[in-house]
Amino acid sequence: MSVQRFAVLFLALAAAAMAQSAPASIAGMWDATIQINGVATPFPLEITGSGANVTACFFNGTDRYPSTQGRFENGKLTLQWDYYAATLDATLQNGVLEGQYAGTRRMKGPFAIRATRAAAAQGAEPAPPIDGLWEIPNKSGKGESAWRFIVQQSGAKATATILRVDGDTGTISGAFQHGKFVLSHFDGARAHLMQITPASDGTLDILQDANTQLTAYRPAAARAKGLPEPTDPDLHTTMKDASQPFRFSYPDLRGRTVSDTDARFRGKVLVVEITGSWCPNCHDEAPYLEEMYRKYGAQGLEIVSLSFEEADQLKDPARLRAFVKRYGLEFPVLLCGEPEGAEAQLTQLVNWNTWPATLFIDRKGRVRGIHSGFPSPGSGDLFRAAEDEFNVQVGRLLAEK
């Protein structure tokens, strides 16, 4: 063998050896699925970094939900979302990530996770127009008779959400394929798979999570058929005695008791949020409340969150602290007990059963309005309307002397 051929062979063998010894890269976009109750829900997973510094992101529309801790070593991926108290553990083998995801309360799990490298986007099919507002007749455990269904469409691509009185399902995204829109979503706290088929009578046939059949009507068509309207979130919950001030007295995250009678609230407009760090719609509302606090705090607005958490979180509210840190909350967040016992404590409220619920309280301590739930940006114009309503409500109360 000539020296030149030997050198070429040596370099090839060395390169192969280096490739085998080099750690596999985990960074990039992945097409993932999570198995819940026998349903495989697809979702995008973005991973960046390497070694002991790895971050993964779930998505809710354009909103990103990054992990707070992560590492990838010896083919093992470990991720934590502290503000969900959730973990993802997976192994990379032959280009496939397989493992499980587990959280607390809402998504206990563990649920099987499988992911492969993201495939190239397929060509778009011509799609019928379904953009806009719809209504879904449905009797819920919260006393509703109908939900709103919001679709935002751009050609073959679409996003949708079901807006209930307690908030929406998050932004469910996808495209038109084989005669129907196939949309899915997983943001770490909510998972949904939805197939939407336009019907010849102008309605939408919806198959939710592979087992629930729903029908959506345009609002005018629903009224023409005598179908009930969705519940007004401003009328769902009321005060038992509107002349009485709303009372609360609970410890904050430092153990100091905060009460409605404290001097800091005297003569102030007060927004009280009933919440929990386990609640997806409370995650939707938190950044907006902080924005409102920064906007109106100097004008006399105070905000207090009454947070109801599981027993283990009451002992060590690590998830709630991470929730406060994620959204930069500067107003008091109080630990009030377990969610199951909340109704027994909030006895001044009538028909309260939504997470979150937001109370608007005037300078005299009287509750002047209660808004049930909170929509995410996936609700489009209705999300912006809720933001505007909160601003108008607070502005009106601040203007009162």
Helix/strand layout:
Elements: H1 3-21, E1 28-36, E2 39-50, E3 53-60, E4 63-66, E5 69-73, E6 76-81, E7 86-93, E8 96-102, E9 111-117, E10 132-137, E11 146-154, E12 157-164, E13 167-168, E14 172-177, E15 180-186, E16 191-198, E17 204-208, E18 212-216, H2 219-224, E19 238-239, E20 249-251, E21 257-259, E22 269-275, H3 280-296, E23 301-308, H4 311-315, H5 318-327, E24 333-337, H6 342-345, E25 349-350, E26 357-361, E27 367-372, H7 381-399
Parallel strand pairs: 22-23, 23-24
Antiparallel strand pairs: 1-2, 1-9, 2-3, 3-4, 5-6, 6-7, 7-8, 8-9, 10-11, 11-12, 12-13, 12-14, 14-15, 15-16, 16-17, 17-18, 19-25, 20-21, 22-26, 26-27
Features:
nine-stranded antiparallel β-sheet, Lipocalin, 20% helix, alpha+beta, Glutaredoxin, 7 helices, 3 domains, 401 residues
Mean pLDDT reading: 93
Give the tally of β-strands. Answer: 27
- Class of the largest domain, according to the CATH hierarchy? Alpha Beta
Q: What gap, in angstroms, lies between the N and C termini?
A: 98 Å
CATH homologous superfamily name of the largest domain? Glutaredoxin
**Named CATH architecture of the largest domain:** 3-Layer(aba) Sandwich
Total number of distinct structural domains: 3
Tertiary shape: globular
